[in-house]
Amino acid sequence: xxxxxxxxxxxxxxxxxxxxxxxxxxxxxxxxxxxxxxxxxxxxxxxxxxxxxxxxxxxxxxxxxxxxxxxxxxxxxxxxxxxxxxxxxxxxxxxxxxxxxxxxxxxxxxxxxxxxxxxxxxxxxxxxxxxxxxxxxxxxxxxxxxxxxxxxxxxxxxxxxxxxxxxxxxxxxxxxxxxxxxxxxxxxxxxxxxxxxxxxxxxxxxxxxxxxxxxxxxxxxxxxxxxxxxxxxxxxxxxxxxxxxxxxxxxxxxxxxxxxxxxxxxxxxxxxxxxxxxxxxxxxxxxxxxxxxxxxxxxxxxxxxxxxxxxxxxxxxxxxxxxxxxxxxxxxxxxxxxxxxxxxxxxxxxxxx
Amino acid sequence: xxxxxxxxxxxxxxxxxxxxxxxxxxxxxxxxxxxxxxxxxxxxxxxxxxxxxxxxxxxxxxxxxxxxxxxxxxxxxxxxxxxxxxxxxxxxxxxxxxxxxxxxxxxxxxxxxxxxxxxxxxxxxxxxxxxxxxxxxxxxxxxxxxxxxxxxxxxxxxxxxxxxxxxxxxxxxxxxxxxxxxxxxxxxxxxxxxxxxxxxxxxxxxxxxxxxxxxxxxxxxxxxxxxxxxxxxxxxxxxxxxxxxxxxxxxxxxxxxx
Lengths: 353, 258
Ligand SMILES: Nc1ncnc2c1ncn2[C@@H]1O[C@H](COP(=O)(O)OP(=O)(O)OP(=O)(O)O)[C@@H](O)[C@H]1O
Ligand SMILES: [Mg+2]
Fold this sequence. Notes:
Chain A has 14 helices and no strands. With 353 residues, chain A is mainly alpha-helical. Chain B contains ten helices and ten strands. Adenosine-5'-triphosphate binds next to strand 2 and helix 1 of chain B.
């Protein structure tokens, strides 16, 4: 293949030589084989290195083959596509392996007994016990945090988008930005200092307050974006009908964006459900069931995971319980995400006849 | 129930930018008045000052008087919300509420303003949809979303929504610019019927449309880009299109412009 023949092709017609559909797969398989070969020959024992070599070979090979057969422009196009694929795989591999490990190790002790019983007097190094207290604690703390954080966050966002002008709005935006950056342990310390002033013992609701602080800025940000997506024409249409502004917001703006707002809130909930630091400081953990979030130490899933790991002196039973609790937590977050998607789809503005 | 509009010395700003300057005119009840003029000369801005929608835009500010049957819309103690109930508006792009059904869209203005009994509401919805010449097309699917209609149907839905609250004046900002000739004709016919009950002001870029539907025509122009728009002349439509008194009007209408 010379440049002359390429020029011929270009001059001749719109049709040029093109690689068959399966060629990316063939190149991928080829580079994988070569990478394994190189890895074995050079005695590299990390599979990660093999994978990276395969990825580089794949990109280079795609460029080489495409440049020879199709020409430089198409080759660049294919390299861009293959880079996207490589990046995608690089992102997905850790995620999939994380879920894989969690499921593989978590299912060992995850059963109905585990979900419906608490640690009680079971020693951390012994098998048995469960996460009932932790589930109750997590649900109550996260639920209360959402009851506080979501309305405050949504109302703040409504203020910023619909009413906010001038200095106050700028200040609120600034503080929301600052709050987004607050490390969770700092939020925990803040509430802890209040607790110490009032000489209180750890209890669930204190954790909820810290979690609400962490949740608010996330809710404000996502709700703000959703409200901005509502076309101004809808607001004007409503105002021009002689509807007061607050009713316009309540009956037109919010219903139009409720799907997105719900998704944002659910994602924020998912985020705080896994927070450990403030819970560690404020809720303390409790092997016994405590249904009252307003008095006495409670358990919580992320805290339970941490404690099983840290206090078990390497006992396998505790590790298994930690993994099973992790799996429960991931499942909880995933279910929340799916519920959010369902609501978003159900509430999305309807089109079609 | 239609009302007269009497504008005097009206100037409107966007922040520090003066968009229109010193406009005075009278719009008779039960008539159609068309606004024509080059793009950017402030027709929409002026229209929106007539129901206090101009101040909804950030920085929007108005000086001057707009009398609606002797009551100054910009007088002290006037509630813009009640002004907008008297002076309805149809926008350039159809904008039905996407979360509401056809029925709810038409009933929106009433529902959002107070409580009505269901039977009362369906009577008004039917009457308004008939008034907007849309009833026959949608009577079997009142519970379907309004955004599922064609563009022309959506625009008539918006007209039905606007007339359902029984305003005294109906403002229309290029209501046909996104529509095909048949829907345009349907809306023009509709304007002819609506003028029996309402005072109508319509902005249009279509000279034939202005000539067809309006009794009076107002020509707006601006001296140069960045200058505020002004009312050049307002007269009977026939006169404007046959024998206008200002040369610029004739140039604009005959296409010899700029
Ligand atoms: N929201 C706004 N903020 C600032 N300036 C604006 C705004 N809307 C319009 N203007 C300015 O006001 C002037 C008049 O605009 P307007 O929309 O009233 O013109 P128009 O006659 O309706 O034009 P068209 O025929 O294109 O609709 C223009 O110079 C425009 O740039
Ligand atoms: Mg306009």
